[in-house]
Structure formats: structure tokens, C-alpha cells
Amino acid sequence: MNSTALSALEIARRVRAGELSASQVLEEHLAQITAVDGISGQLDPPALTPLEEQKVHAFIQVTADLARLQAEQVEAKLTHGEDPGPLAGVPVSIKDIFCVQGTTTTAGSRILYNFRPPYTATTVARLEQAGALILGKTNLDEFTYGSSSESSAFQPHPNNPWNTQHVTGGSSGGSAAAVAAHETPLSLGTDTGGSIRQPSAFCGVVGLKPTYGRTSRYGLIAFGSSLDCPGPLARTVSDAALMLQVLAGNDPKDSTSAIQPVPDYLAALAEGVRGLRIGISPDYDHIAYPDTKTGEMGIQAIQPEMNQAVREVAQVLASLGAEIVENVPMPNARHGIPTYFVISRVEAASNLHRFDGVKYGYRTQKPVQDLTELYRVTRAEGFGLQPKLRILMGMYVSAAAHSAHYYQKALRVRSLIRADFERAFDPSGPYRLDALLTPTTPTTAFRRKEVLGDSVLMQYSDQMTVGANHAGIPAISIPAGLDKQGLPIGVQFFGNDFREDLILRVAYAYEQATLQADWRQVIPQALRTAEVK
Amino acid sequence: MLPEKITREMFDKLVSLAALELDEEESEYLRTELNHQLAAVKELSEIPIDEDIAPSLHGIDCQGNPPRPDEWQPFPDPDAILALAPETRGRYFVVPEIAQLSQEGK
Question: Is-above-0.95 flag for pTM?
Fold first, then answer.
């Protein structure tokens, strides 16, 4: 069997045992990229042929030379009797929002098209030290600002491997697509409002947003500094646990990095769910959606298959001995997106002020009179529409005249959102949950161009996920079936602070109990096409 | 119908403060989307909230790193940082002239 079909755990096991060489693993994954990915995202792409339209386009940059060097290092260690680490020979792709020395790090934006950082993000350095092979940088919404990955300045944007006419979700869309299309078994993403979990759900893979502070933000190009969380995307729950094990831990270079010890995530996986309390909330079976003309909030049903998947997952867990706790109230869940519209935009606007064409990145080629004009023209040419929109929104709602009304209020509503979760997980409270089970998204992957440009509708794609970012808690999305169109359905487990071990355990129990399910035997369109060739 | 919160005039001021320049098409799109987003956040103001609910700057209590000793930790390769700049002279970043206020306070 080609190594592209193997899990990261199995690749590392075979490489460490000398049964498989890191170079062979690498070349087989590079061949898979050649077969399914098509041209990489670029600033001035050629017109796409019909064949290219069907490709995945997960990558902005494939770093084959860097990965070959790393494969040689893994092999040299083995030759010398040293252990190359828990990710020995495992190819990993990196969302192009992490600084990696030796690569261009674009954030999917023209303003960083030529930025080659002189240092490497802590999370990426940990993957490298664990023996991983860095295969390349994956495409994303510009500066991570979106939920479809279509807004990248580097086109073509990624397509959903299950149906390339549909989006991957976002903003870690290239990462989710690369994992789903067997281009890498693991990818490093970021989650600010759902950017790991929503594309994972859309592409039928596992995505975990850790507790805020569990993984280092050093070397991550910031979006919402109080919300950003690096985390793993993988095809199996145990691979996500393996990758989290490598990523997690204190980093002196990130002031909000947690000092709590890191448990053994893999060891806890197989402990089962007997006696665990899994909650379901009526506040997560619909969304509250505003009429943008009147501002009136209305209740909208979500795709019925999402609620059905939640019930089926609950049944499986109940059959394994978990206790299902119904009717857990999460009354502030509906405020998640309005609150996010304010907090994330204020933080984004603040973080985007540094891009000005002076010290790195794009600078306008037009003649300018003075420094102010240099800033304006550079930023006008360098930023796409979504960063401009977020800067303007963030400045408006944090302006002195409006701050009390918007920003200060949003920070207090954030406390209410957090309090819902605290009540649900409180060990002496009425619900005493170990995990809260919800759909990951209101719908399965939407069609390309269907939502692009409607910034409100696009943001509501994150309504089910964003609560974890406000509250700082961990959450995992796992595949739970296919809808009538054959597109993946994701369900999500929220957990209490630093209880990644528990939500991984619940997710693993469901995954292992459904390995033989019919829907798990269906493979993505992109892989079927590659096999025919 | 909600009144437009952000008028053309306010919008142009914001654009200037944000150190941006926009063409007509971009301005129309962005101003429309801004007003839609403000409509979407309207419900925040209607949420009753007790006086004793404090704002959360982070979701969890950040038990992060304590302040570190004030020790100089030089970056190992400052030339690599300078090499990223669009224009340098010697070891300085070069920018166009910084606008001066005239005598008339223009």
C-alpha cells in the first residue's frame, strides 16, 4: 500500500522501525500532490483549463527541497541509532499564516507576497524537531479572514476534494483539502472563530482547536490575538492526538502560553466513554440570523441532516455507555457571531496596522510624495477587500464615540457566552458535562461563489464553532456521515478548559465504533479521479 | 429599514484614518457590507446585562508566563531582517519624506 493511505501514526511507526524510508514516504506524497493538486495558488494565475478546475489546489507553495533535506536528517538519525521523534518521516503541510524560515509566508495576501521570515514559528519548529517533513504552505482566506478560502490573493483557491465545485471552508481550507486528498496526513491550521473545525467538517477530516494558550502563537501572523489558536488537522482522531502532543506546551516566546502540564493524549484515547456525560443543546439545532436590512434577528433552521447526525452520534455514544444529557441550555450561543463581529474586527484592525511597506513585504511601485501616501497606496494595493473591511469595521466599533456601545458591550457578552459553558461543565452544577455535542456547521460545504462577497452570511458559517473561541475552551470536529449530495457532515465536541484529552477520547470512541459504517467506505472525488489516471 | 449608520462622509473619514485609499467600486461594496455588519451586531445593544458582569479580554483566565527578567536577547541575524526591507541605506530603512506641517498649520 502506498504510504499516502497510511495514518501519521503508522508512517512514524514504520519509519522508526526501519520498515519504510522517510524518502519513500516523501516521494509518494509529492507524487500525490502532482496527481491531485494542479497549479499552486499564485498572484497572477493563468486561465484554468477544465482539468485544472477539477484539481484541489491546496498549496501556495510546495517545499520539496526543504522536505528532502528533512527526510535525509531523519534517515541519518536512524543510521546513527538515534530516535528521529514521534513524527519521524511524517509529511505535514502548514497553513501559510505561520512563519517558516526558508519559505515565503504570504498569509494569502499580496502585501506579504515576498515575505521570507528570518525565523520559524514555535509550533512548526516543534513539528520539525519531532521528525516531520514540512511539505509546503497551504492556501487560506487572505489573513484568515473568511470561511471558504476563496478570498486568497493567491488563486486558484482550494477546492473541496469531495466535490470540486464546492468550497473547502476556511480559513484553513488548503490544510483541510490537503489532508482529505491524501496529500499530507497532517496539517497545521489556526482557529480564531472556527477556521480549523469548519473546513475540517466541510472536507470530512478531523480538526481540533485547543484551549487558548495550549499551543504557542509565536510566529503566527496574528488575526484576533485573544482568540487565535494553532491546532491539528488529520484524517483520524489518534493522528490529531499525536500531532497535538507535539504542538502543545509552554512557550516563553508567547506571553499567553499556558503553563499547565501536557497530559499523554494518546494514552487516554482508548479509555472509552462509559460513564461520561455528553450534552446536547436545543440552542445548537438552529441559528439566529439577522435581516441585514432591518437588523431583526430571525430563527433559521439548519440543514436537517446536521441535527440527524448529532442524534445518531449520541445514540452510538449511548450504546457505548455514555450518558446523554438532553436540553442543556446555551442561551448566549446566539450572540456568538455579533460578539465576534466586534471583538475579532477590533483585534484584526489593530494587528493590520503593522503592514505598511516599510520594513518587509509589498511596497507600491508608484511614485509617492511622502510617507503617509506611501502607507495609503501600499495598503490600498496590497490588501484585498476582506482585510480592508475588517480594518474599517474594527476602527468604527472601537472608536471613542462607539466603544461603550459596541466593543465594551461585546466584551461583557463574551463573559455571558463563557458562563454558559462554565455552567454546562461545572462538576457540581446541574449538567456536569464531559463534552457538549453539536453540529460543527449549519450546512455542508456550499458551492463556490455562492456566499463569497456576502460578509454577513459568510461569517454565520461559524455560528456553531465561535463559542469555543470566545470561551477559550477546546473543541474538536469529526466526520459523522455524508449528506444527500455526498458531502461530509461534521459534528463537534466542546470540552472544558485543558480537557483536550476528554474530547479526543469521546471522538475516538465514536470513530472506532463506526469504522465499518457505509459512509466511511466512500472516498473523495479527487482521489477517485487520481485512481482512474 | 434601519437607517444607514455609516454615511458616505463618515466612511471617507474612516478610510483616511485607516491609511487606505479606495476606488468607487470598493467604497460602495465596503460601505454596504459595513452597514450590514452593523445591522447584524445591533442585537448586542439589546442584551440585558447585569452591572456586575465584567468584560472578558480572554475567554479563559490566562495563566500564562510570568514576566521574564529584563534581559537583552539579541536576534541572532539582524541582517536577515534588514534584507527584507523594500529599501535600505547602510543599516537604515529608507522611506519617502515625512510630511511637514507648513507655517499656516495646513
Answer: yes
